[in-house]
Amino acid sequence: MPLDRIAVVGAGAWGTALANAVARAGRAVTLIARTTPAADALRTSRKNPRLPEARLDERVAVTSAIADVATADAVLLAVPAQALRAVAGTLADALRPGTPAIACAKGIERGSRKFMTEAIAESVPLAVPAILSGPSFAADVARGLPTAVTLAAHERTTAQALARALGSATFRPYHATDVRGVEIGGAAKNVLAIAAGIVAGRGLGASAAAALTTRGFAELMRFGQAFGARAETLTGLSGLGDLILTCSTAQSRNFSFGVAIGKGARPDPAGTALAEGAFTASVLIDMAIAKQVEMPVAAAVAAVLEETLTVDGAIEALLTRPLRGE
Q: pTM, whole model, 2 decimals?
């Protein structure tokens, strides 16, 4: 499978970082911005305001012409989860049949309760859906700092070929076929990272943070297995690995969003630093209820975001749950 020409759709922080990673892998890469002015500014300055410490690799071509995906051997969709279906739909007439379309967002579509590869399959039926996820900050990837992620497709040969095409000395995609497990790890950990941020914002201490992360991971495991995910995927990079990263540092947008809530603020989840977990929380809980999966930590986050429960009320509810065996 020749995968020499890669298009990255979405010129935000993550798209810019991935374009740099692809260039380092030695592939011809085109970064597609949403508007012509945005493309012109990035092409000229080679700087993305959302990545002040990184510079766009000179080998990355920048355009706003979505039709340029027609020459790509694979496409990375680096757009927010709730916008992925619409953006993917714009590729349908240009993308060649059989071209891998890789979701790089971590979330579940609200309303439809669809995972990212399902949204791709429905909006671009002739594409080959795949998912890239794992413990990765855009700033690290853009600068070429060592990063390992998981890249999953339903066919092992496709996943292997994509991993080889995108991999380099500092960007290491591990291939997998458990597409659902990779999607669930990325989506659920964002919600749990908000909970971890709330704990930090309330100043509840490192012990509470460790307990919440551990019990949150148990919820992630229950949810994942209810939807057919493999245990080894959930304990790997795209599950436990990503959870550890995003529950432990303010560099995580979901964690920082939770910190602000814990301190009494009401930040905008769609602001400059998009918090995907805020849009995933309610649909995650709806899906958990449908499968009779108990997720008290994630449910508390959803209730706080929907303002049906205060932060202190959520903390009290979690701390007063009946004692039980682990």
A: 0.95
